[in-house]
Amino acid sequence: MDIVYLLVPLSLVLAFLIGAVFWWALRGGQFDDLEGPAQRILMDEDGAADK
Amino acid sequence: MATISEAKGLGAQCYHCGLPVPRGLQLAVAIDGAARVMCCAGCQAVAQTIADNGLTSYYRHRSALPLRDDIVPQTLRDLAAYDIPEVEGAAARDLGDQAREASLMLEGITCAACVWLIEQRIAGLPGVSEIEINYATHRALVRWDARITRLGAVLEAVAALGYRAYPYDRQRAEQGRRGERDRALWRLFVAGFGMMQVMMYLVPVYVTNGEMTPDVEQLMRIASLILTLPVVLYAAAPFFSGAWRDLRAGRAGMDVPVALGIGAAFAASVVATLTGSGDVYFDSVTMFVFLLLAARFFEMTARMKAATTQEELARQVPAVASRLVDWPLSEQTEMVAAGGLRSGDHVKVRPGAAVPADGVVVTGESELDERLLTGESRPRPKRGGDELIGGSFNLGSPLVMRITRVGADTVVAGILRLLDRAAAERPRIARSADRVARYFVLALCAIAAVVAVAWFQIDPARALWVTVAVLVVSCPCALSLATPAALAAATSALHAHGVLVTRGDAIENLARATHFVFDKTGTLTTGDMRLVGVIPLAPGRNQRTRDECLALAAALETGFTHPIARALAAAAPVFAQHGCAECKSVPGAGVEATLNGMRMRLGSPQFVAELGAYELPPDLAFVADDVTVVALGNEDGWIALFTFVDPLRAQARAVVGALAAMGRQVHMLSGDRPAIVAHVARELGIATYLGGAAPDEKLAYVQRLQEDGAVVAMIGDGVNDAAGLAAAHVSIAMGGGAAIACGNSDVVLLSGRLDAVLAAVRVSDATFRVVRQNLTWAFAYNLAAVPLAACGYVSPLLAGVGMASSSILVVANALRLLRHAPRPAAARLPLLAPAS
Prior knowledge:
heterodimer; A: elongated; B: alpha+beta; seven-stranded mixed beta sheet; six-stranded antiparallel beta sheet; 29 helices; 29 strands; disordered N terminus
């Protein structure tokens, strides 16, 4: 059962890490537009780049 | 992937926009090595821009055709205005070191390919460091170097692609609100995430039911404690600060029991954890915070939804205007900031553009869409001399207008001010709910204390948790939310009907009103008097012609704007202008002035007769009953009689009938001749009326009704019956600019349509019903929950669920009121009109 002493604190660290990542994503505007990026992947930028 | 125009057929359609190509037109652009036909020069220009910039991949990936915009060259000229430093300064933020940033609103985006197209083009401009487009909101954020390029250049480049971009100038308000929403969302996330994780640690403790070794159990508790810390310290912070604010102000608000509950449960759990004895309730604490935050979040969303009307309204007014520099000598225009317009400026309003400020039409004839301002969905025809409201849309042909009011004096600014006032006022019913909630909180704290003492005698181990459950389950949040949420939704729904509520109490009073007192002139009738007869009276050689009589009368009425004055001014010949001195008006009677050295009076025959103490003319007997008679005379005797009719409003009969059907009593007051008033009352089916009433008699009439216990709603034009309107419980003013400018009526019917009264009454009734339902629910819930919790049947967890779901229920019920708004009219701009 000693492993619990490692795993429980580890899960705590992970929980705070997840929170931090979500906070960073929210601040970075990752959730502002949920539709556009999905379509953007289709677009080819090569033609415009050499302009 | 096949492009859309290929799929549609054999090249009969424009490759760019999909509209049919006119026969014999030879416009083409080489795209990806093939010549593509275009339907007009505008499309050709746009497609050429796209091809020249190597962006033809747009055509391969688009999933919807672009909106047609036939005024691209025009738009280009408008956009140059953003090169004026003061206009650009208003739209952009300075980031220092010559870097600027602006949020833009994009119009015409139909699919994700549009976003890509604009981003590629703008990012390729020299000087633009960054562009970010949000497909969901159609907003763009642009950053550029002010030394290399200007905002105008960016907007021009967007316009050259066939889209429209304009600075989003309410960005600061928007940012503040988004910040509030983001913080609330983040708090909700912290509470929800903490709640789930705490549950993960505590479930094994529950499941093993004491078989867990004490050291592992202690580990789980400490882990839960660490996870609960951010929930209590960060997510629940608004409750603690709210409670602290309330206590410092010597009040007991609804945050007090919530904060007490959270604080007590958390503190006791921490003590239990540290001493290693007793129960911990970290799961209950986190869940309670989460549910409460969820209820608050819903309430906030509802409030923001109601606020969008206001924002839409403010956005109506354009940022730039094309001022006619030398009108009427030349048609030359210059672009100026709309805020820089002065009263008296002449401005050109193009089709598809918005009117920059209030004013009057000088030349031109067109139709204007005033939907957002007045709720009137049909375009209104306007011609020379008609008033224009800033923010309305010109749908027809170009107009030249003279600005009469700018800035804070405009109708839009007035509406926004009144809406703000209504929102800032706590209506009586909300105040009394607050007062009740305050006593309720005090009583609650007392009950909680009694419960704590009692349970300490019965079962000390459970005392704390029962007390916490009592505090939490009976928090009067629903009681405090019940009314404001409903009123906010109702104000928004009413505004969509063209009914502006300017007082917090108005909706409540309108729902309670038993007597509706209408003014006749301008309210039940159109108020546009029509001159139907002129009877010259002076005997012998003093007899004047019809035109002379009219010219005299019009001169006396110069400077007055009431309906008779307008009808006389319209009918009087232009050539005869007299100057009059010592004008004074006697309300309800007429005007007196000195004209060519002679004292003259114009008004009711009695009033004129008093001037020379002579008898009423015999002709008066032959005048029909249902016309308004105005007499003109001087010290020597009568000069003429004028007769006017005032046609009924089309909706008057239906409105009177519907109000009666709703069980409301309808009365009519008028300063007009009793015979005319009786005639109108018969036509409309109004049983109780009073004719020939002077303003103080109208006031007395309203007060008499009130003494008999009636709740009086008075409907007038807002100018002539000021006293009666002020005395009534709720005053409703018909129509536009003047009523808004005085701002002393509780409700303004912006559309100038009488049937808006019905919409107002219906929505008010529905609102009151919802408020009553909400209050009943909140009270019933608390009455049932407190005894149960006091007896120990409710765990803190269940208490949190019950309280939060009660709040959510109340807010959701209030939101039903938004459905009373009429459906918005279809397209506002004829964007798809085919090219010439």
